[in-house]
Design a protein that fits this description.
mainly alpha
Length: about 375
């Protein structure tokens, strides 16, 4: 057998470039499937140790929030000194909040709880015997259905929410949880920041030297996605809450501070948070100021969320997450179906992490010139 013949046979046995790419893609997909399976196992394990898991998650969130400032201060002082300076600043902000904001929120919440039965009775009376021309135009059957909604919500809350609320309040108000939040979480956060470089080195040591540059790039991308999501959500929620507070104050809707803070917090739940903040604002405007004010508040809330969705959120969140609205909605639906409320919070960052893995490990998408034109 001549040498060229041997070479030809060896070439026939070697897989082609297309076969190698398909094999590589299948391996990556299998790796992603295994990662998802492990993620489900980790989440189930964390669900079994909820108290510890909450401390770890709280420490991670705090670490990502303060890391940029710690890194900037670290240029001029040691890491431990930077952490202490940032903690002092956080404590100062917390003291201001406890002094000026928390008491007012507590008074608003207490007043709102006592006013709810009267507001419900007023709403039902208006639906049954309307005095407004606008309400009279609503069909009688629809008005009866709307009048019965508060009773249905009350029965559902008593059936499903009483036990959960009782457990949540007992956990939140327990000495252990307060101690964990104030003491253990900052300590865990400090150790995470101090040991971050060592953890990365140990992780890189699990891979061959030729793969470490790629792995390091993936770690940086994942770290940027998670940190960008957490910090972006905080900034976006603060902006939305402030706009809601200013708008409700200007339109003379009561409990503006309470609703503004709640809207900012609920903004962490994409799309659903906007709806949850919309309903009490419009109902309170209707109860206290009439249909005209309620319509104005509804329009202004729509404007606020248009501003947030088109200008604020893309700059502080979507650029870091890198997901289209379609993928965000699908991720939220799947996350809530699998893990409930926790899955709703985790859906977007997990989907963004999968997006990073796809971009880093799978072949690039086809150019737009080879795809069908998008509808205009």
């Amino acid at each position: 057998m001549t040498e060229p013949e041997v070479v030809r046979r060896l070439r026939r046995r070697l897989p082609s470039r297309a076969e190698r790419r398909v094999t590589f893609a299948l391996k990556v997909l299998a790796l992603i499937a295994v990662a998802i399976y492990l993620l489900v196992g980790v989440l189930n394990f964390l669900g079994a140790i909820r108290a510890t898991a909450l401390l770890i998650v709280g420490a991670l969130i705090l670490a990502y929030l303060i890391y940029p400032l710690v890194r900037q201060l670290n240029v001029h002082m040691p890491v431990i000194g930077s952490i202490f300076v940032v903690y002092a600043l956080v404590a100062l902000i917390g003291a201001v909040g406890l002094t000026f904001i928390v008491p007012q929120v507590g008074r608003d919440l207490n007043s709102f709880v006592h006013a709810v039965p009267g507001l419900i009775a007023q709403f039902q009376q208006e639906m049954i015997a309307p005095t407004s021309e606008f309400v009279k135009r609503i069909p009688v059957d629809d008005r009866m259905y709307l009048a019965d909604l508060p009773s249905q919500f009350n029965s559902l809350a008593q059936q499903y929410g009483a036990t959960t609320l009782q457990r949540s309040v007992s956990v939140l108000l327990s000495a252990a949880s307060v101690f964990g939040t104030v003491i253990i979480v900052p300590i865990l956060t400090a150790y995470m920041l101090l040991d971050a470089g060592n953890v990365r080195r140990q992780l890189l040591g699990l891979f061959p030297a030729r793969r470490r540059t790629k792995v390091n790039t993936i770690i940086d991308a994942l770290d940027g996605v998670i940190g960008g999501f957490i910090r972006g959500q905080l900034i976006d929620g603060a902006i939305v809450g402030t706009m809601m507070f200013v708008m409700l104050t200007a339109t003379h809707v009561p409990y503006a501070l309470l609703i503004g803070i709640a809207s900012g917090i609920l903004n962490f739940i994409p799309y659903a948070g906007a709806l949850i903040g919309f309903i009490p604002s419009v109902l309170l405007a209707l109860a206290y100021n009439g249909p005209g004010n309620a319509l104005l508040v509804a329009l202004l809330i729509a404007v606020i969320h248009q501003i947030d969705g088109n200008f604020v959120s893309p700059r502080v969140l979507k650029e870091n997450v890198g997901l289209s609205p379609l993928y965000i909605i699908l991720a939220i639906i799947a996350g809530s179906e699998l893990f409930g409320l926790a899955g709703t919070f985790l859906a977007v960052p997990v989907a963004a992490m999968l997006r990073v893995l796809r971009e880093q490990l799978l072949p690039s998408p086809a150019p737009s010139s080879e795809a069908p034109p998008e509808p205009s």
